[in-house]
Amino acid sequence: MPINRKIMGVSRGVSKKAIFGYNGFSNLVSSSGVVASDTTLVGTDRYALAASSYGADKAIFGYGTTGTKSAITNLVSSTGVIASDTTGVGTARSNLAASSYGADKAIFGYGTSTVNTAITNLVSNAGVVATDTAGVGTARSWPCAAGYGTDKGLFCFGYDGNYASYKNLISSSGVVAADTSTVGTARQQASAATYGTDKAIIGYGTTGVKISITNLVSSTGVIASDTTGVGTERTTLAASSYGVDKAIFGYGSASGNTAITNLVSNIGVVATDTAGVGTARQQLAASSYGS
C-alpha cells in the first residue's frame, strides 16, 4: 500500500485547490489550475494582506488594510468558503507575508504597522491566531513567504529602506531564524508558493522596475540564483500551490492591474501567461485548501 505522506499541510497523492482573495473578490482555482470567475467576498474587504494553509485542508486570510490597518482574520473551509471576520489578534498591519509550517500550522510575519516590523503570529492547526512574538531578523515590508521541506517555511526579500536580499528560515516549531544572506535579485512585492511537494518558488516583484525573475528554493531551504523571467513583469501579485505538486502565480500590477496567471510545473518551470479570469487587481493574497 502506498504511503500518503503529509507535507506542509498537503498530503502526497491528494489533489488540492487554491483561492485568490480580497481587494474586491475571491476566485477559486481548481485542482487542475483553472481559475473561476469572481465570488462575492464575506467579511471586511481589504488589501495588502496575507494568506496560508493550515490544518491540512483549510486556509486563513489575515491582516491587511482598508486604509486603516487591521488584524482581522477570515478562515477558509475545506470547500473554499470564506468565513466572516474573526476579531484581530496581534498588531494590526499590512504588507506582510504568511507561510505554512509544522505540517498543519501557519505563521504571519513582518509588515508595516506604524513602522516596519519583524513580529510574527503563529496559527494553530485549528486556525487560532496567537499574540505577537517578538520579531527576529530585520523589520521590513513586502516580504514573500512559502513552505518548503516536510514541515518548514521561509520569509524572503522585502524592503527595509533598501531592497532586501536575505531570508529567514522557519523551523518545524515556528521559530524564525536570524537573517541569512541569499542569492538572487534583491526585491520587494514578490510572491512565493510551494511546488513539487517539498520545494518553493519565488517570483516577480520590483527592484524599482517590475521584474518576472524567479528563484527556486530547495527542500532544504537553499535559494537558487535567478531564472530568467517568464510572463508579464509585475508586482503585488499572489501565489499558491495547487493540485498535488504544482503552483500558480496570479493577478498583480503590471502596466495596470491585471488578472493574468502563470502556472508552475512540478519541476518549477513557469508557463507563459494565461489570460486573466476575474477582476484585475493587486495586493491580494492566495492559499491552497481542500483535499
Task: Provide structural commentary.
There is one protein chain. The protein is an all-beta fold and about 290 residues long. The chain has a single domain (about 5-290), classed as Neuraminidase (6 Propeller). The chain has no helices and 22 strands. The protein has strands spanning about 5, 10, 15-20, 25-30, 40, 50-55, 60, 75, 95-100, 105-110, 120-125, 145-150, 150-155, 165-170, 180, 190-195, 200-205, 210-215, 240, 245-250, 260-265, 285-290. A four-stranded antiparallel β-sheet has the order 5-4-3-22, with no helix packed on it. It has a four-stranded antiparallel β-sheet with strand order 12-13-14-15, with no helix packed on it. It has a three-stranded antiparallel β-sheet with strand order 6-7-8, with no helix packed on it. Strand 1 (about 5) and strand 2 form a beta hairpin. The model is unreliable at about 1-10 (pLDDT under 50).
Write the topology of this structure.
Elements: E1 6-7, E2 10-11, E3 17-21, E4 25-29, E5 39-40, E6 50-54, E7 58-62, E8 73-76, E9 97-101, E10 105-109, E11 120-123, E12 144-148, E13 152-156, E14 166-170, E15 180-181, E16 191-195, E17 199-206, E18 210-217, E19 238-242, E20 246-250, E21 261-264, E22 285-289
Antiparallel strand pairs: 1-2, 3-4, 3-22, 4-5, 6-7, 7-8, 9-10, 10-11, 12-13, 13-14, 14-15, 16-17, 17-18, 19-20, 20-21
